[in-house]
Each structure stands twice: as C-alpha cells, then as structure tokens.
Description:
Layout: E1 3-7, E2 13-17, H1 22-30, E3 38-42, H2 48-60, E4 63-67, E5 70-74, E6 82-83, H3 85-90, H4 98-105, E7 107-111, H5 124-132, E8 136-140, E9 143-147, E10 158-160, H6 166-177, E11 182-186, H7 192-203, E12 207-209, E13 215-219, E14 227-230, H8 235-247, E15 251-255, H9 263-271, E16 275-279, E17 282-286, E18 296-297, H10 309-317, E19 322-326, H11 335-342, E20 346-350, E21 353-357, E22 366-368, H12 372-384, E23 388-392, H13 395-400, H14 404-410, E24 414-418
Parallel strand pairs: 2-15, 3-14, 6-7, 10-11, 18-19, 22-23
Antiparallel strand pairs: 1-23, 1-24, 3-5, 4-5, 7-9, 8-9, 11-13, 12-13, 15-17, 16-17, 19-21, 20-21
Helix pairs in contact: 1-2, 1-7, 4-6, 5-6, 6-7, 8-10, 8-12, 10-12, 11-12
Amino acid sequence: MQKLAIQGGTPLRGEVRISGAKNAALPIMCASLLSSDALQLSNMPDLHDVATMRKLLEQMGVKAAIQGSEMTLSGAHIDKLEAPYEMVKTMRAAVLVLGPLVARFGEARVSLPGGCAIGSRPVDLHIKGLQAMGAVISIEHGYIHAQVPAPGRLKGAHFFFDMVSVTGTENLMMAATLADGVTVLENAAREPEVMDLAHCLIAMGAKIEGAGSDTIRITGVAKLHGATHRIMPDRIESGTFLVAAAATRGSVMLHNTRADILETVLEKLQEAGAHIRMEGDGIHLDMAGPLKSVNLRTAPYPAFPTDMQAQFMALNTIALGSAMMVETIFENRFMHVQELRRLGAQIDIEGNTALVRGVEQLEGATVMATDLRASASLVIAGLVAQGETIIDRIYHLDRGYEHIEAKLSQLGANIRRLK
Ligand code: UD1
C-alpha cells in the first residue's frame, strides 16, 4: 500500500493551479446518460474517483475519450442499466446514475451504498423523490430497482427534502429534466456544484430555474442534446491549499479558482490571522503574524463546508487558544482526531463537538488516513510537525486530490510517495 512521507517545518511558498472540482465532475459525467449526443467536458481533474466513474459509465455502454483534461462522453449506445456493488462501494457518487437512467430508459438497478467511515449516509431521499415522480422502487438483494410504469416516463412532482442533500438534489434534478411536466425541488442543496451541474444540463437543452437557491423548478423536455461544458474549480482543493499555507506560515497564490464560492472558508482564514487578496481567478494568502484558533460549525452551503472541517482542525491544533468545532452534517466525521492526537494534538470530543486546544508544536509520527478529507488534515499536520510523518492508506487522497504531492513539492514541501 502506498504511503506519503513528509518532513515538516517548511513554509509553503509559491504558486499552484487548482484543478476542476471532483464534486462537480462526477454528477456532470452522469449527465451524459441523459442524451444520445456527446457531452464534451473540459477542466476535468485527473482523480481516482473520475476514473472509477468513467469505468462505471463505460460498463453501461457510454463511449469515453480523454485527452489531457478534456473528456468526451457519448451515451448513444447504453445497454446496461446497472451500477454494481463493486463500484458503488468504492465510490458513493455512483448512485448519481440512478436519476438519469430512470429518466431516459425507465429503469435502473443501482447497488445500495453501505455505510462509510464518516457515517451511515442513507439514500432514502433519492428514492422518495423518484417515487414522488412515479417510479416504482423495490430493494432487491441489496440493489435499488427502479421502474417507471408504461409509457415509461417520469412525471413532474413537488418534492420537499427533509434534509439538505447534495447528490440527492443532483439525482432528482437530472431525473426531472426528462420528466413529463414541472418538478419543484424544495429545501434543495445550494452548493455551487449543483449550480455547475444545472449549467451543464441547461447547455444540453434542459429547462431549469433557481439552481443555487433552495427551490429549483425544472420543466421536463422530450430530449436533451450534446453540449460542451467547463468544470468549475475545486473549492475544497483550494481551501485545503490555503489552510496548508496558513498552518505552515507560508505565502501562496492559487490560480484557476474562485473566491466567491469560498466565502466562509476565507473569512475563517482571516479570523485565524491570514491576509487574503483576490486577483482575477486567483487567491493569494499570506500568513505572517500569529495563528489564532477559530471556532466553526459545519452546515449546508453557503455555511462552512463539512469537507473543510478536518483541515481546519489541523490548523487549530497548533493555533493560539482553543477552538470549538461542531460537525452537523455527518455523525462520525472526527476519524482524524485519533490520528492527530498521535502527532501530539490536544483534542476532546463530546458528541458532535470537538474542543481543540492549540499546542506549540506537533511531532511527526506514523498515522493512517481514514477518509478523503481526514487524509488532507493529516497532510497539513505532517507539513507543520517536527520531524517525519508517514501517512498510510493514501489511496483516499488520490480519490479527490489531483497530484497532491507534486503540487505541494512545487510549493516547497518536503514530501514523497513511498511505493
Ligand atoms: C456530498 C459530497 C460530499 C460532502 C457532502 C456534504 C459529492 C459527490 N459528495 O455528499 O463531499 O461531504 O455532500 O456537503 O458531492 N442524507 C439522508 N438521506 C439521503 C441523503 C442524505 O439522510 O437520502 C443525509 C446524510 O446522511 C448526511 C446529510 O444528509 O447526514 C447530507 O448528505 P448529502 O448532502 O446527501 O451528502 P452527499 O451528497 O452524499
């Protein structure tokens, strides 16, 4: 199993280019199932999850062509309406094929995702929403089997999400593009990635209003056509590099990113003492003075993202003072705490709240990555710790960060992959 070895203590300095967003690329790839014409995507990140999604779509009959960061997907010859367990268990976003398949072909079989390291993560809202649109759904042998009664078209419906769900909103929005009539999704996710998907669907001929707000109105059309779309920048990768720069007391310039979708993260970094400046599609961070602890509470967009909680915890471990960090989205998203403690961090957990008391210095040790963002927090901790930190199970990182050690090396970090 591959590992990362990091010699901590070097401030990150220099420039880095941010990749396309994983959480926009995955749903948008699934949108290729909605049309028989080709979907041309640019700014695609080179990630393990993207490769897994491509493989899944290819198994269904999608033709994929890749050149650098461009990917063309053609859904002209779909012959298998199934997402098998082996795929869904490695990547929960595979459930995003459900809505498009049911909408275009009137049927789908998708493995039920199991629990994962950060919580139970049910998909009941995806299922209830499709049922509201007329799909008949049964759970058979661990699979969601969805069928639309003759004549085989979903019907527009009014659906209220009990909880804000990002992929739930995306699945139902895609399904509604080809339904008969109007669908209204209420308490919908407002994440920028939902908006990016909506922009792509609109380019494909979908009629969608309100994406980015909590009420999305979709008027079904008979068919969608091909389109070209550029994937938005990855706000979580951006945030991760900014936190790493702040924690190491460095100075970095991110290119190909967007400050407007990172507002709460930038505010928290400023509260921690960082100086931030925007320049076109760039964000510059400079951390000269003392690093201060920041309290935070995760919640759906536009509030503070759960996908940045672990990285900020690494920052708080070496900041002045104490911080209270509340995780409201996932019930078990503190898996990094035990590993950070191995590096000398002082963290107490009570339910969904972590109290982090800043220490002067972390010390390198061997730690284990447990999920994607937890891994990023260990990398940040390793970059500031004294001596060597070895991070085991880094396949989690490769799922969601493009060439992370190359990008960090470019910023002066002493990091290498052990094979
Ligand atoms: C997406 C992101 C993930 C991020 C998360 C929260 C992708 C591919 N992944 O995951 O990186 O951490 O949003 O911002 O975009 N829930 C239910 N029933 C459902 C669906 C969700 O109870 O049917 C609950 C979940 O257990 C969780 C909360 O709703 O507690 C939010 O989950 P959701 O927004 O659906 O997360 P994902 O879309 O899976």
